UniProtKB/TrEMBL annotation:
This is DUF4258 domain-containing protein. It comes from Chromohalobacter moromii. Pfam families: DUF4258. InterPro entries: DUF4258. It comes from the Bacteria.
Length: 84
C-alpha cells in the first residue's frame, strides 16, 4: 500500500492487522483513513489520524502512525475521542 498524502509506502504492523480484523477494518478503509482523516501530531514523527467512517457505528476510527522511511501503522482504534 502507498499513501499519496505522505508520499510513503505503508507498513501495517502485526498488532495493527490484528486490531483491524477485530474491528472489521479493511485495507480500503485504512487507506481512506490515512489519505483523508484529520491529523494530530504528538511530535515530529508520531501522530494520530482519525475519521468518522460512513456506515460505521463505532466512530471515530483512528490509526496511530509513525513517520519513518515509510508510514508505519502501529495500531487501529475505534470509539476514539480526541484529547482536548
Amino acid at each position: 500500500m502507498f499513501c499519496r498524502r505522505f508520499g510513503l509506502d505503508v507498513y501495517v504492523t502485526r498488532h495493527a492487522r490484528e486490531r483491524m480484523a477485530q474491528r472489521g477494518m479493511t485495507e480500503v478503509l485504512l487507506s481512506e483513513l490515512l489519505e483523508t482523516g484529520q491529523m494530530r501530531y504528538k511530535d515530529d514523527t508520531r501522530l494520530w489520524i482519525a475519521k468518522a467512517m460512513e456506515g460505521r457505528n463505532d466512530n471515530l476510527v483512528c490509526a496511530a502512525v509513525v513517520l519513518e522511511d515509510r508510514l508505519v501503522v502501529k495500531t487501529v482504534m475505534h470509539h476514539f475521542q480526541w484529547e482536548e
